[in-house]
Structures are given as structure tokens and as C-alpha cells.
Amino acid sequence: MIAPLVTVRGISRTFGAGPTAVHALRDVSFDVEAGRMVALVGRSGSGKTTLLNVIGGLDRPDAGSVLIDGEEITGLDEDGLSQLRRDKVSYVFQTFGLIPVLSAAENVGAPLRLARTPAAEREQRVRLLLDLVGLAEHAEQRPGELSGGQQQRVAIARALAASPRLLIADEPTGQLDADTGRSVMALLRGVVESEGVTVLVSTHDPVMMALADRVVRIGDGRLEQ
Amino acid sequence: MIALVRRRARAQWPVLAALLAVVTLGATLLGVCALLVARSADVALGVAANRTAPEQTTVTAYTSSVGGPDAAAVVDATRDVLTSALAPFPARTAARASSVLRPLPGRDDDARTYLSGVEDLPDRAALTSGRWPGAAGEAVLLEPTAKLLRLRVGSIVHLAAKPPENPAPAVDLTVVGIARPLPNAGWDRDLLAGTGYQADFNDGSTMRRFPTYGPFLVGLDGLVTGGSSLSRMEVVARPDLSGATPATLATVAAGVRDADPRLTGTLGDRARLTRVASELPDALRAQQHQQDVTEAAVLAVAVLGTVLTAVALALAGRLTAGLRAAETSLLSAMGTSQAQRVAMAIVEAGAIALVAAALAVPLSALVHSGLSHLPPMAGAGLTTGPELAGAQLLVVAAGALTLTVVLVLLAIRTEAPHGDRGRREALARSGADLLLVAFAALGWWQLHARGTGTGLLEVLAPALLLIAGAALALRLVPPALRVADRLARRSDALPLPLAAFEAARRPQAAAAGLLICLATATATFGVSFDSTWHRSQRDQAALAVGTDLAVALARPPVAGQGAAITAATGAAVVSPAADRGLAVGQWLGDGTPPRLVAADTTHANELFRGRLPGKRDWTQVTRGLAPDGPVQGVPLQAGSTFSVAATGAGDIPLTTTPALLLQDSSGLRTTCTTASVPLDGTRHPITGCVPVAGMQLIAVALPVETAPGYFSPGNTVAVTADLRLAAPVGDLSSWTVTSALPDAGQLLQPALAATGSTVRMTARVQIGGDSNATPTLLATAFRAPRTVPVILSQALADGIGVTTGAKLDVLVGNTGVPVEVAGVVPGVPSAPGDAAVLADLDTLTRVLAAHGDLQSPVDAWWAGAPQRTDIAALHLGTVTTRDGESARLTAGPLNAGLPAVLRLLVPAAVLLLFAGMLLHVTHDLRDRAVEVARLRGLGLTGRQIRTVLLGQHAFVLIPLLCAGALVGALATWIVTPLMVRSETGAPPVPGVVPVWPWATEGLLILVLLAGCSAAVGVVAAVQARRAGAAQLRVAS
Fold first, then answer.
1. Is A204 touching B (CB cutoff 8 A)?
2. Exposure winner among A159, B296, B540, B552, fewest CB in 10 A?
3. For residue A208, is pLDDT > 80?
4. Is the model's pLDDT at B967 over the cut of 90?
5. How would you classify residue B446: left for phi > 0, otherwise alpha for psi between -120 and 50, otherwise beta?
6. What Gene3D superfamilies does its record include (chain A) (predicted)?
7. Exposure pattern of B256-271 as b/e (b: 16+ CB <10 Å)?
């Protein structure tokens, strides 16, 4: 039995109040084992993004708890959550989330700068990661000069830069064509294999579900298992 | 469509409110300028006219040789002409008339007298005994006349009838009072200038001169109706110019100009000569010109404010267009035509213009009223309540409409594809920059080359220069940011380097940059222009007065005045001064003779005022002008008298007019003379020479003349003159005795000896000869230099083409004086811009004395560092102070508009900058809300995100503020010396020194930085707090 990296217990999240209140999550509980790739599947508005935001510390639940690597994060203050995202959790967004004014290499190096990694070490790590995602030759290009797939690869490289324990990817292929999406998913799969990173990814794509170690379905804010 | 516009307005009210605020601010600024130019300028002209010195507003009609029967009618007609010339203003008239000279009865010296009728006599003289004349036949005498004629109250004088050519009936006059003339009461226009007696007066009716006594002061009505012919008649009209308007002032100026021919026509042959004189038209013209100068500067500031507002509006409009980009695309997709979009933009802009104008009209009236209650307008008498003016309404409406055109143009602008737009915009911007620079250069040249007038380009020039400078300065910012980018790459941290990357690599909004740069430039330029203008006015005032306090004497100076002025003012230095014309042979000029200014240069720094170029001061400049040491003469007791007895050997009848040169404790040199005395050994008293203590005798001159009509060339006569003093003379070995210059060799073996209280002067005088000069035996307590070292004004030096070291001959009065140019200065104290000569008074009077001219050239007093300036009670003459002149130039009604509008421009620029910055930052951060949220996703804390946001704006803002300040400073150095003018519109003298008040400018930039930082900080804090899941959800 592999110990869970992520433990979600009784998470609820409601937006608004009164008759117009939206119950995005209702008593959600599940575990994600370390070194696994878990696909979070559900229709639009099912609560996938909210759940990922709560797990990543970008949003706070109304009830329940989230433990990452044994650390309860729902009680952390803003600085604690920032520290968590810096050290243990990283994100890959559907819209890539790259900083437009930075080159691919600088985007990948941003988390390392946050950790105040010395320049030489940072550059070496950036080269390694860009090589890993197959973009070593595009290091100096800015996001606007890269294709969607390339941008998402850069985003994955950036997410891996600080060697996180958990990589959260919110529909990383949502804006990509099928082939590019598959290659991105393959890259994520490869990362799990090579880097031992735990990946929690939300998706609609059945192909991607097939690449996952486990599929967690969510509907109307509840897990469907 | 209207419904859509209305619904959109409801939804986007903050944006529209921002646009409205900017348009309202600009229109208000224009409205205030319009009120300053239209309303305040009119009031200022009226106030200035009302404050004009009385001697400049009076209109005087002079007539002469009026027949007795016509006298009363001539007086009445003259009054009518003057009062109608001054209409619509009420005028008070005062007449005085003098009869023809009439023989004094019972005299064997053919003495004459005359009658004078003076209105307002009690205001012009003080009774010492008796009463003022009432009935016909009653008269008052001046003290000297009464004393010399041995008349007293109750005396009766019978004046016989005068021959028919100038008839005057016999009259019996009863003396009913004795009076003393008051200073500055118009006695200078009396036949004998109020002295009561003149030994050899000529009234111009004949060639002969008579001992003349008078006047017998009688009632004017009695004189003009008594049948006596009048030799002179004068009517003075003093208008009350309160409530004057430009139109009424123009009317009165025309009326006064026309008065002279009207008077001539009205009087016809009832008077031989008629003349109407007044400085009023010239004074009013000068005031109008001064007002024009101020108006031009106010208009230049208004243009600057409008340009700034337009730039702020362009920024706001672009941001609004960006905000509505999606909406515009949607409308296009739904089939809305370009014409419909234009119509919507016009409706919206029209509504904004309407509301802005409606707000700006009362706002501008309130702001104008507020400004008028603050210095300098309040001090200038321009205080007014909130009021509306036609020009204001027109300008506000036109301004609001014009500004909103910018909004329409931005709203309907078609976006080109990105690549094309970038190239096209870059090309257009380069072209616009070049055009701006060309226009700015043209404007500068126009300013540089302009005379005393002002054209459109000169009014636009400052705005053109500032906007061109700001546009060019914007191009300096990207290279600076690239340097920051390179430095940031070396850092291991993220927040600040990321801020630098964002600043350097993100395309910056040119409109925002231009607004920040231009507003900073405008504000800093406004502050420095204000300081430069004030400094220049103070400099002009200092040089114009020449000292701290100047008294232009109404009468010749008398001993003891210096001490009285010192006591009254507590001044550190008080010096007699000469400020008069002189003749320089080489000078052609404009018909105005060069001026001679002479005062005590041994205290030059304490006494002289007026900025000199470089770091020179007046002590340095005037070094070498003064003699080595003060004169040590023979001390005299107050009230002591002299007597002189002269003899000439042989039987040639000789006369002399002894002249004593005395000096009081303040250095004033006065001359004491007696009537011409024969050289017959008779002793003649010389009295009244030593009215105060502390005086000393420093020179004696004895011109030796033959009796009238006697001509005996070739004879040499031994002349001896004994001057007896009241006390022992002491040692006179340091005295010099010589012949006065030019020495024609007629005076031989001059000698001087002192025995007890007697000074004996001897010489052998050759009578006749080729020279026209009177041989003058001269004894002085000083050695006079051969030439007077002088400083020339640049205008004179240029005009006669001389430089330092040149030697000239100038004519001071009737005395030729050799001078040597010791230096050249841009302007001589009290004679700015004039051709003038500055000399040391001591040196000048020594040299004049050496030429036998002992008459004092002094006609003024100068005082340095006075504690008090109100010395009107001394009745010395016209008092002018440097501070008073400064106040007139800086806060006078005709000048106050400029500092007032600058006071408005600076806060307006600051407000527009803050508003623009707030709009820009709000839009920028809102556009990038998702990006900010992702920074949080990267693990940046709220503080780090704020650092990134603040930093990236600071990286742009600080160079822009610095660039703006640099542009403001450059404009100060380039433009202000050309914009600041004298009150005549000519370049000021001394030249303008640009002033950059570091403390104020530093504070202003700090305020701008703090305000902008606060705006960015607040928005960034809100944005950082909001950055989170919500934005990420939106993004996803």
C-alpha cells in the first residue's frame, strides 16, 4: 500500500448565499497516492477546478480538510499557502499561465528565482527541463512566439522546476488539438515515471483518462465512484 | 441607439465619470483663463488707471498773454475744454493766473511785481500771520517778499495803471496775510518759483531784466475779473478715474489727445499761446501694453493647460476604447454600421461636453473668484465675486466641445491589423515628433526674434516646446528600461527583476507616458516660470530704482537733508545722488540724452541695487571711481557767517561773485554765493550758508570779471580777496589754489594764506585775452583728478563704440568734463536699458569744482538698507522704494494675472497627472488580473505580488517623472528668458536669469511620485488581494 500524498476529507465549497448559492463541492473525500497520475473527470461546472484550487491552496473550503504530504493546508495562512505552492505543489493551467514578457527559459526559471537558486544552478536546471520537454532550442522565445503545445510544455517544465511533490494540471489540453493534447499527456505520464511526481489532472479527454493510474469522477460537486 | 448609449452609460458610469472629470477640469481651466483675460484684465486696467500717479493723470492747460477783458471767459472756456476732454470721468479743476509785471511804486531800481490768483491757496501755502484774502483788493505775500519789501499785515500798496499795450488798471492792495509756500504745492510754476524775489527776472515780454518781487496773492476771481492783463494762466484738471473701463479709458485718452487743438480753437485770439499737456494718454497706452504682455503670458499658460488636458483625455479615451473593444466587435458583428457607431460616439461625447460645460461655467467662476481673493490678485485690487462673462461661456463651451472631439476620434478609430498598426503607429509617431520639434523650433525662434508685440506662434511656443520635449523624452525611457532589464537578469530573485522585465518588455501606453512626462514638465516649468518671473521683476525693480530708497528732489537739496533722511529711515547708508541728463558728443541715440548717475561709490554694495552679470558686485565694479580719501575741509559752526572783501589793483572796475563750496555730514555739497561784488575792498557778508552743524568749507571760487561793457585787453591786475570766517581757519597747507579749468593762462601766481579766521587768496589776473572763459581763482581742500573715471551702460558703450580705457569729453550742465571709461555694465542703477554713465559723486563734484562749477549736480537722495520707508512727512519729493517697485511689478493689477494663472496651472497639471495615472493603472491591472492570479499560483506571496506590480510601474514612472522634470528644466532655461518681458513688452533689463527652485521642485516631484505611488499602491494592493481562484476560474 502506497501512502497517500493527498488526503481530501469532507470538503465542501459554496459560492454565494441564499437561493442563488452554488454548491461547487459537497463533502468530497478521496486520496491520491504518491507517484501516481490521477485524472479528475467531470462535466463543465461539476466542481473540478474548485477541487483543484482547494487542493492547491488557491481557494479555501467551507468545510473539510486537505492534507498534502501529511500537512493540513486548510488552516495555513496566505504565506503558508504560498510556501506550499512554492515547495510542494505546482500548477499547469489550461491557458498555460506563462508570463508573456519572459522567454521560455525565464518562465521555467521563475520558480527557481523564487527559491533564490544561484544563477548557474538555475540555468542548468532550466536547460535540463527544457530538454526534458523537448524545447531546448526554443529557450529564448517568448510565449507569444510559441505554439499552444509548446507553451504548455514550457508550463509543465516550469511546474517541474521547483521539484514539487504534487503537480496539479487543470485541463492542460483544453486549448490544444487532439494530437498536441496527447503528446502533452504523454509528457505528463513520462514525468510521473521519470520524476516520481504525483499528478492530479482534470480532463474530459478519454485518451488522457487511459493514461492515468486512476480516474476520479465528479458530478454536481460530489464524487461518483 | 439612444437607449443603448443610456444603458451603457449606466453600466460604465465610472469610466464616463472619469472622462467627464477630465473634460470638466480642462474646460474649467480655460474658463478661468478666459475670465482672467476678459474680466480681470478689464478690472485691472481700471484699477491701474485709478492708481496712476496724480502727476500722470492731470491735464494742464497753459495760456499766456490774455487780455484783461477776456480773462474770466478764457478761464471758464479752458475749464470747459478740460472737463469735456476728461468726460465721462468727473474732474476737479484748479486755476492759477499771474498778471503782467507791473512797476513797484516808490523804487528807483525799476523793480517789478505781479499779482497772482491761486485757487486752493490754503492747500498750497501756510499762513504765518494774518488771514487769506477775501474781498477784492486784499492780498497775501510770501515771507521773503514781505521781508524784502518791508511789508506787514495791514500795509497798503498802490500799483499804478499799466500802459495800454498790456493794460492793467491801478489797484490798491491791502496786505492781509503773510504765508510760506508748502513744498510740492505747484510753486515751481510761479513766475519766481515761489522764491518771492529774483534780482534779474525776465518775463519774456521784453529783453530787459528787472528786480522782481512777488507775487501779491489775491483771489482768482478778483484777478480775472479786475481787468488786468494776464501774463500766464494755467488750469489743472484732475480726473477721478474710479470705475474706469477699457472703453471709457479709450474715450478719455482720445479726448485728452484732442484737447490741445480744441482749446486753441475755442480761445482763438483771446490768448497768444495755448497748450494742453498731459501724460495721461501715454500712461494709459503703457498700461494697455503692459496688460497685453500679461494677457499673452496667460494665454500661453491656457494653451499649455489645454494641451495637457487633451493628452489626459486622449489617454482616458484610449483606455475607454480598449475597455469597449469587445463590445465594439460585438456591435460590428451584429451589423452596426460605422455611421451608427460614429453617431453613438457623438451622442455620448456631446452629452459629456454638455455636462462638462454646465459644470465648468460655475466652477470656473468660483475658481476665478477664489483666485481673486488670494494674493497677488487680492493685493492688486482685483477681488471679485463669482461672475459670468460672455467670453467665459464661449471659451468653456468651445473648449469642452473641442476636447470631446478627441473622444469621438478615438471611439471611431479603426484598428488595423497588429503588425500594420505597429509599423503605422511608429511611423506616425516619428512624423509627429519631427513635426512637433519643427514647430517648437519655429516657436522658439519667434520668441527669440519678437519685439514688443506677441503673435499666435509665441503664445503657442511654450506648449509646443514642452510637448515636443516630452515626446522626445519618451524616447529616452525605453533605453533606460533596457538597462534595468539587463541588470535584472543578473539577479537571483524574482519580484523586482520580474517588475523590471515587465516594465522594459511590455509595450508601454504612449499616451500615459506622454501625460506623465508632459504633466511633470508642465508643473515643474510652471513653478520655475513663476520663480523666474518673480526674480526678474525684482531684478527689474532693483535696477530701475537703483537703490533701496530713492528720493527725487522737488527742489535743490539743502544741507542737513541727509541727516534727516537717515533719522527718518534708519538707513545704513544715505548718499546724495545725481540722476540727470548729460551730453556726449558721439551719442546719437534716439534723441534722448544719456543719463548721468552719480552717488557715493565707497558704499556701493550697500547703496546700489541691480543684478550684475556673473558673480560681480557693485563694489568690485565701481572700485577706483571714488577718490582715495574723504575731503578734510574747514569745520564750521552751525549758523556761522562769512564775509568777503576783494580788491583789484589799478583802476579797472572788476567784480567777482564769490562762491563757497560746503559739505555737510552726509557728503552733500552745496554752494553758497552772494550777489556780484566789486573789487573795491568793501566787505560783503555772506549769510545763510551753514544751516546745520557738521558742515565744512571745502572750496572757494572767485571768478574775476570786468564790469559790464568794459573791455581792456592786455592788462594784468593783482587781485586779493579776504574771506573771513567766524572762527580761526586752522592749517590750510593741504589746500590747493589754482586757476579753474580750462586754464587759459590768464590767472598767474595764485596763492592762498590763512591768518586767524581769514583766508587770503591772491593772484595776478590778465584781463581780456582770447579766451571766453572767466578767469577764476579756485582754492580747494582736495586735489581733483584730471578725469572722472566712469562706468558706462552697455547701451551707451555700444552706441558710441567705446570700451574700457576710452577717454571722452562729456557735458555736465554747462561744464565740459573729461571722463575715462573704467568699465561697462549691462545697466546703470536707476537707468535700466538706458544709455547712462555711472560716476562717483565725490569725484564728479571735485572735477566740476576744478572747472569752476561749484553748483551741486545733486537732485536726489539714495538710501541703502532703510528700516523705514515712509518719509512723506519730510516733503522732499517723490519717494520710490525698491520693495514698492517690486510689489508694483509682481503684484500690480496689470501683472497679477500671470502669477495667478500659474498658481492654477501647477495644481491642474498635478491633478491631471494623478487622474491619468489612476485610470491607466486601474485599466492596466484589471486587464492583467488573471496574470496576477497566476503569479500567486507560482507561489508568490501577496507582498511579492505587490512588489512586482508597484515595481513595474515605478520602473516606468520614475524615468518618466525624471524625464518630465528634465524637460521642465530645459524649457525653463530655453523659454523663460524669452517669455518674461518688461512692462513695455521689451526684454527685461537686467536680463532674465532662469530660476530653478530646487527645494520647491524637489517637493513637487516628491508629491508627484508619492501621489502616483499611492495610486499604484492602492490599485496594486486591491489587485493582489483579489488575485486568486476567482481570476483563475475566469481564465479557465
1. no
2. B552
3. no
4. yes
5. alpha
6. P-loop containing nucleotide triphosphate hydrolases (3.40.50.300)
7. beebbebbbebbeebb
DSSP E strands in B100-170: the ranges are: 102-103, 112-118, 125-130, 138-142, 156-159
Query: Which of B492, B1028, B1036 minimises the CB distance to A113?
Result: B492
Pick from A124, A200, A138, A113: which is nearest to B491 by CA?
A: A113
Q: B615 is written with which cell numbers? A: 558673480
- List B residues 1010-1029 in contact with A (Cβ-Cβ < 8 A): 1028-1029
How is chain B split into domains, by residue range? 1-52+245-267+281-415, 59-75+90-240, 477-538+888-1036, 576-629+787-859, 634-780
Of B492, B1028, B1036, the CB nearest to A119: B492
CA-based nearest residue to B875, from B216, B187, B196: B187
Contact B705, B773 (CB under 8 A): no
| Residues sharing a CB contact under 8 Å with residue A120, sequence separation 6 or more, in sequence order | none
- DSSP sequence for B57-113: H-EEEEEEEE-GGGHHHHHHHHHHHHHHHTTTS-EEEEEEEEEPPEEPTT-SS--EE
Show which of residues 906-935 on chain B sit within 8 Å of chain A, judged by CB atoms: 930-931, 934-935
ipTM: 0.85
Q: Compute the Cα dihedral for B794, B795, B798, B802 and give only its sign.
A: negative
Report the residue from A50, A95, A116 with minimal CB separation from B1035: A95
Please choose, from the candidates B371, B394, B393, B396, the residue with its C-alpha nearest in 3D space to the C-alpha of residue B384. B371
d(Cα B759, Cα B777) in Å, to the nearest integer? 13
Question: Which of residues A111 and B983 earns the better pLDDT score?
Answer: A111
The pTM score is 0.82
Q: What's the confidence (pLDDT) of residue A29?
A: 92
Whether residue A94 and residue B1035 make contact (CB cut-off 8 A), yes or no, is yes
For the record, the C-alpha cell of B464 comes out as 509646443
Cβ distance A118 to B940 less than 8 Å, yes or no, reads no
Query: Which of the two residues, B3 and A50, has the higher pLDDT score?
Result: A50
- Categorize the per-residue pLDDT at A142 as very low, low, confident or very high, splitting at 50, 70 and 90: very high
Q: Is the pLDDT of residue B420 over 60?
A: no
**Model pLDDT, residue B839:** 95
Neighbours of B251 (CB within 10 A): 17
When scoring A52, A93, A114 by the number of chain B Cβ atoms within 10 A, the one with the most, hence best to mutate, is A114
**Residue that has been written with the C-alpha cell 507517484 in this structure:** A35
B236 is written with which cell numbers? 489743472
User: How, if at all, do strands B776-780 and B736-739 pair?
Assistant: antiparallel
CB contact under 8 A, B939 and A83: yes
Look up cell 556726449; give the residue. B584
On whether any CB of chain A is under 8 Å from the CB of B4, the answer is no
Average pLDDT on A2-26 reads: 87
